[in-house]
Write a structure and sequence with these properties.
about 160 residues; alpha+beta; four-stranded antiparallel sheet; 7 helices; binds inosine-5'-diphosphate; binds magnesium ion
């Protein structure tokens, strides 16, 4: 069966994007959606979730040994605000999504990126995006693994956004 991250390098490529609790508290959800929609990407999954500690630890498994890991898991999963979890689809969306988000440390994020516009602290950097096709596959199945949570649809006017000739 087709990967949940679509087909790498085609217009069906998908990435996992999440507005983290600090971004939700700060009213940044619409800013994130606006940027991906305006660019021409297609929203194929969206939900508000308070992730369990277990899900959050799995999501950030590669950071388990870091000193900030416990604080990171707490802030993501304590329920003071939900995470707004999304899957976006389109050409090169994984790499472009990371570029739109900006560097992990907002003090190094370029102006114009989401973190570079709205954030000043690595511990409160508002948004997550998959960093590779393999991460996108893992993260989409973790957050949107149940049948029916992702929608296949054709965006109106997509022929004016994507063409191969
Ligand atoms: P990314 O979110 O840009 O992919 P990662 O290195 O994967 O960055 O780290 C995941 C998240 O862990 C970051 O977005 C940030 O919330 C948190 N984090 C990373 N480094 C630090 C740190 O030095 N202090 C506190 N939190 C950190
Ligand atoms: Mg990461």
């Amino acid at each position: 069966s087709k990967s949940l991250a679509g087909v790498k390098g085609t217009e069906t490529e998908r990435t996992f994007i999440a507005v983290k609790p600090d971004g939700v508290h700060r009213g940044l959800v619409h800013k994130v959606i606006e940027r991906f929609e305006n660019r021409g990407y297609k929203l194929v999954g969206l939900k508000a979730v308070v992730p369990s500690r277990q899900l959050t630890e799995e999501h950030y498994a590669d950071l388990k040994s870091k000193p900030f890991f416990k604080g990171l898991v707490d802030y993501m999963s304590n329920g003071e605000a939900p995470v707004i979890a999304m899957v976006w689809e389109g050409p090169d969306v994984i790499k472009q999504g990371r570029a739109m988000i900006g560097a992990t440390n907002p003090l190094q994020s370029a102006p114009g990126t989401i973190r570079g516009e709205y954030c000043v602290s690595v511990g409160r950097n508002a948004i997550h995006g998959s960093d590779s096709f393999e991460s996108a596959e893992k993260e989409i199945s973790l957050w949107f693994g149940k049948a029916g949570e992702l929608i296949d649809w054709k965006r109106s006017g997509s022929e004016w956004v994507i063409s191969n000739n």
